Amino acid sequence: MLRTHTCGQLRKSDVGTEVTLCGWVESKRDHGGAVFIDLRDRYGLTQVVIGPPEAGSELIDEAGRVPAESVILIRGKVTDRLEGKINEKLATGEIEVRSVHFEVLNACETPPFTPSQSDLPGEDLRLKYRFLDLRRGEMQRAMFLRSKIVKSMRDYFEKHEFIDVETPILGRSTPEGARDYLVPSRVHPTSFYALPQSPQLYKQILMVAGFDRYVQVAKCFRDEDLRADRQPEFTQLDVEMSFVDADDVMGLIDGLVAESAKTVLGKEVSTPLPRMTYSEAMRRFGSDAPDLRFGMEIVDVTAVAKKTEFRVFRGTADSGGFVRGIAVKDAATKYSRRQIDELTEYVKGDFGAKGLAWFRVEDDGTLWSPISKNFDPEHLAEIKTLLEGEPGDLLMFLADTWEVTCKGLAGLRKRLAGELGLIDKDALHCSWVTEFPMFDRDEESGRWVAMHHPFTAPLPSDLPLLEEDPQDCRAQAYDLVINGSEAGGGTVRIHDPATQSKVFDLLGIDEETADDRFGFLLNALKYGAPPHGGIALGIDRWVMLFAGLENIREVIAFPKTQKAADLMTEAPGQVDKDQLAELQLRTVKAKKD
RNA sequence: GGCGCGGUAGCUCAAUUGGUUAGAGCCCCGGACUGUCGAUCCGGAGGUUGCGGGUUCGAGUCCCGUCCGCGUCGCCA
Fold first, then answer.
1. Would you place residue A556 in the very low, low, confident or very high pLDDT band (cuts 50, 70, 90)?
2. How far apart are the C-alpha atoms of A254 and A397, rounded to whole Å?
3. CB of A323 within 8 A of CB of A443?
4. How far is the CA of A338 from the C1' of B15 (A)?
5. Rounded to whole angstroms, how far apart are CA atoms A114 and A24?
6. Cis peptide leading into A232, omega within 30 of 0?
């Protein structure tokens, strides 16, 4: 080792020791006759003094010239700081190192920004110079937290006798689900591999192979548009187990959540984690990943709406729609008409709502609103009672289809809670949402599509519904929700060919297509397939949520921008004509409409 | 693909209704200084206002197009 100690290591007890330190010049205070340097590495900061009597003027001058963020090596003696010069902010603040040797290992060019500057530079610059950005304390902490979380997961599964098996990155495209990233094959011109969206099919086959309990930290790829909590390339903790039901999988993950929260954050999470069915979640929160750190539950007032003369409510209720609302506590004076207009634009623009109805609960307990004259006082009183409105509350309603009221109110609920500061940032609220529907209607084609994936097993009690009423058929599916974010999801899989072909039938996948796309899995299922199920946990999101961050890029070393580019390496990039020729590919510019 | 926010010095930001030579702090460069830890003091350099077009006597500011970054809806089995 070039160094004897790290920059976070030295204490009062080391005074008198000769040490060699290496690190980055975090800051430099040059007094002409003496220079102070804060030397930084991942472990901490140590003050180095280059001055008389032990340093000559040549050394002092050299230290005075060293640019910030250069990597240097210094040798010297650990000494007590002078009376009253102790820096309480530093763990090493009681000592300093008086340098007798000073060496620049790599001088730093003037950097576009420094890790210690208080104004964070724009994110594009941070991404282009990620090596500088990753030197920042926040990024370092996030990466170490990530490492600890992954280790806690690996420890947990090893303790439970899981085997870690790697599955291929070059696989075969399955047009179901998200868009695939494709990789052309040189050896098979005109054929393509696909990067895995998840190791789903491989892990099921590992169950058929008898591994019983499988785990993998798996890179997954989906060529879809990005969000604050979504990257095209992400990491899953992928799990599969044989001879289990949904309870078994959830129970195992309950233990993981509790143990990981405890070892990584020192937080107690009581288990079993609360569970809620999908239909309850949609009814009470309008979302399949409800944020349970605050209340503001959705209330259905369709029955009252039917009795009123207000056309928007009445018309919606009479034509099979829903009128649902939320009570926003103490918000009546906090939201001006203008701000409510903004909320109206929000639900219209983002969720396709036709409008936003609202009432203020006045001091005398009556409801007031620009539309209140359209209502009988007794109906207003009923609405107030249903929402448990109290003076000062703001009641907001959407009159629309079930889907729009769900999405719109869930959006409002989240936005208002954020704006009103109702969310406890320290809370780690974990829960399960269960019994998802098996199928969803595709708006365009009107066909059934699998809500999760086509290998998801229905609830045994709902098996008859596969034929009678697919709409109501529920799946043995479960999502782990942390602070209103989907942190993982899994299902019990179909392991008998009869059910599988019924599901394919419903999805409009004929035998030939099924065989072409998933033949290898269907084949395996015929050769002694145990009942099995599993789950995939989004590691990036876990880290983000455990860290209390709101952006997934903050916990990924080299993330991509919203347009899926890497600003540092400038991927994706052009390739040589020769490379294309070898792959027998030619690029064609798409015609613009 | 839709909607919204943003792009001005190396960095973070400012610039009145469209009006003189586009400013400040940090960074950088030069000088002074032995106790700083956001060092201090003196001096200096640094700009095609993302790019292209238009309106105007005059555009950082208004209009159109385009690129880039961010948020969000669609999308994400």
1. very high
2. 36
3. no
4. 29
5. 11
6. no
* Burial readout A489-503 (b: 16 or more C-beta within 10 A, e: otherwise): bbbbbbbeeeebbbb
What ipTM did this prediction achieve?
A: 0.94
Give 3-state DSSP helix, strand, coil % of chain A, rounded to 5.
35, 25, 40
List, edge to edge, every strand of the sheet that includes A477-482: A163-164, A213-221, A233-242, A532-538, A485-492, A477-482, A430-434, A275-277
Q: How confident is the model at residue A446 (pLDDT cuts 50, 70, 90)?
A: confident
Residues A306-313 have a mean pLDDT of 95
> Quick one: which residue's CA is nearest to B77's C1'?
A177
First to last CA, chain A: 62
Nearest nucleotide to A225 (CA to C1') is B75
0.80 exceeded by the pTM? yes
The alpha helices in A80-221, defined as continuous H runs, are 123-128, 130-133, 137-159, 200-208
* Residue lying closest to nucleotide B11, CA to C1': A113
With distances taken from each CA to the C1' atom of nucleotide B1, the closest residue turns out to be: A225
* Residues above pLDDT 70, as percent of chain A: 99
Nucleotide nearest to A89 (CA to C1'): B37
Residue A164 β-bridge partners: A215
Average pLDDT over residues A573-584: 94
CB A101 within 8 A of CB A56: no
Residues 9-48 of A with CB under 7 A from strand B: 27, 29-34, 36, 38, 47
Considering only CA atoms, give the Rg of chain A.
30
State residue A591's pLDDT score.
56
Residue A460's SS3 state is: helix
Q: Closest nt to A33 (CA→C1')?
A: B34
pLDDT band at A532 (very low <50, low <70, confident <90, very high): very high
CA of A242 to C1' of B21 (A): 78
pLDDT digits (tens, 9 = 90+) for A59-113: 999 999 999 999 999 999 999 999 889 999 999 999 999 999 999 999 999 999 9
Three-class secondary structure of residue A551 per DSSP: coil
C-alpha torsion angle, residues A51, A54, A56, A57 (rounded to 10): 10
Which nucleotide lies at the shortest CA–C1' distance from A454? B77
d(CA A425, CA A445): 42
